[in-house]
UniProtKB/TrEMBL annotation:
Residues 36-57 are annotated as: Disordered. Residues 1-24 form the signal peptide. This is Extracellular solute-binding protein. Pfam families: SBP_bac_1. Coiled coil: none annotated. Keywords: Signal. It comes from Paenibacillus sabuli.
Length: 483
């Protein structure tokens, strides 16, 4: 584990080392103009970033791409502008918008029916899962020929590099935190906790603001879909626990530990002792974040940019109403550990080589590109004109201290409607990557446990954990052989 600021420093060091050693060149801080850009193959040219004259394939081809969900209206505007610019650069490529959102329960069906998009979105847990099943194209050759590969943020990109092969392209990342409606706390007479807070602080604050009779909760932990297991894992990590470990060439479930019992007992206390969670607790990510934006809960656990975006742009909140907190430490002096995750793009292995190349070019089209800076500035200005805020990712695909990162920061600094994360909060965030094997299966299993804890006051926490660990072990982990 490493704090978020520590991760950013590590990224800068790794990027500097790559640049100094390097095939892509660039300055030691990860500059945006690598030596040799425009002199290599198609992916090593400026055309791969929408700034050259390469017209792409000689014959017409079609690629389907991940398109943001309807609730992400501003992201759709950015994507529409990107499609326009991409097809101007590559007139023989038709870009079709796909409304399919990645699901680990649907990807196998989509692949078997040859219905998966040419370029689809996924998340940090899925790299090994997709690669082992042959559902993610090996894009190593494309990535190796990419002029800006050394400037990708290694904290994110390395999660999709397996056995030296590249299976995905990082988009953005996060360390899970707690987003707090501080105005709601003050209005209800609840004390706003310090940033360096603990589980006890949460147990004090959440019931102080809750009003179950009025449908108001102090905090809305997710309680259905895989989201519930993902939310709870933050507390497992804060208690010092692990999801799994490799022992003697086997993957072993470890979440039914003493740390796991402490974390699950804390959930039990939030539900039954504090009565601080929603009475209808069966909430997924959209439900919980929506509840926050609507003022029906004071706190929500998530990658911070989502709840902040909805709170400001849909809930009508002011930046002064919202505070991004790290996860609470189990006890004073402990680490504020949150799940380190991210969003990735994966190329469909069933696509033709030409389609795969154009999908890769589309994925990286705006990366390290001045065209993107122009589009970004126009989008932020349009939001300002509409009275909306722009919320950056917590962790970018690039290093913010690099030359390109500084260009992005210069754009942000032009506007007063760009949300600024509190550096003191970011400094406390301690990111821990998700498990490598069958993480979504583990999340789903833990969701069933969490639902039992929320439904049954007399539940035996350790017995539930032991049964869940046994199920995960036999059903998912025992067949794995670690080389």
């Amino acid at each position: 584990m490493v704090t978020l600021l520590g991760m950013m420093m590590l990224a800068a060091l790794l990027l500097a080392a790559c640049s100094n050693g390097g095939s892509a060149g660039g300055d030691a801080g990860g500059g945006a103009e690598p030596v040799g850009a425009g002199s290599g193959g198609a992916n090593g040219s400026d055309a791969a970033n929408g700034e050259g004259s390469d017209a792409g394939p000689a014959e017409k081809i079609t690629i389907s791409i991940y398109y943001p969900t309807p609730d992400r209206e501003d992201d759709r505007k950015l994507e529409d502008d990107k499609i326009r610019r991409f097809t101007e650069q590559y007139p023989n490529v038709e870009v079709v918008k796909s409304d399919w959102q990645y699901s680990p329960n649907e990807i196998g069906i989509k692949m078997a029916a040859n219905e998966a998009p040419t370029l689809f979105n996924t998340y940090a847990t899925e790299g090994k899962f997709l690669a082992e099943r042959g559902w993610a194209a090996d894009i190593t050759a494309l990535f190796d020929d990419y002029a800006y590969k050394e400037q990708m943020n290694p904290i994110l990109q390395e999660q999709f590099i397996l056995d030296g092969k590249v299976y995905g392209i990082a988009q953005r990342g996060y360390v899970t935190g707690t987003v707090v409606n501080t105005k709601m706390l003050r209005e209800r007479g609840a004390e706003v906790p310090p940033l360096d807070w603990t589980w006890d602080d949460l147990l004090t604050t959440a019931p102080a603001v809750a009003d179950p009779g009025a449908g108001i909760s102090g905090i809305a932990p997710m309680g259905k879909a895989n989201d519930a297991g993902w939310n709870w894992t933050n507390f497992l990590f804060e208690a010092g626990g692990e999801i799994q470990a490799i022992e003697g060439g086997k993957v072993v479930a470890k979440f039914n530990s003493e740390a796991g019992a402490k974390a699950l007992d804390f959930y039990k206390r939030l539900r039954w002792e504090a009565n601080a969670i929603p009475q209808d607790w069966a909430l997924d990510w959209g439900d919980a974040v929506g509840s926050f934006a609507q003022g029906r809960t004071a706190m929500v656990i998530a990658g911070p940019d989502g709840p902040v975006d909805q709170g400001l742009n849909q809930g009508g909140m002011s930046p002064d109403d919202i505070a991004v907190y790290p996860m609470p430490a189990m006890e004073a002096g402990g680490a504020h550990t949150g799940v380190l995750g991210g969003d990735y793009l994966v190329v469909n292995p069933n696509a033709s080589p030409e389609e795969q190349e154009m999908a890769f070019r589309y994925a990286t089209f705006d990366y390290f590109s001045d065209n993107f800076l122009t589009s970004l500035e126009a989008n932020i200005q349009a939001r300002k004109d509409d009275g909306k805020y722009f919320i950056p990712p917590v962790i970018e695909y690039f290093d913010m201290e690099s030359a390109f990162g500084q260009k992005v920061k210069a754009v942000y600094d032009k506007f007063d409607n760009v949300y600024q994360y509190d550096p003191a909060s970011i400094a406390l965030m301690d990111g821990k990557p998700e498990a490598q094997f069958n993480t979504q299966d583990y999340y789903a299993t833990m969701t069933n446990v969490i639902q039992e804890v929320f439904a049954n006051e007399n539940v035996d926490v350790q017995a539930q954990l032991d049964a869940a660990a046994q199920l995960v072990q036999t059903e998912f982990l025992d067949p794995i052989e670690v080389k």
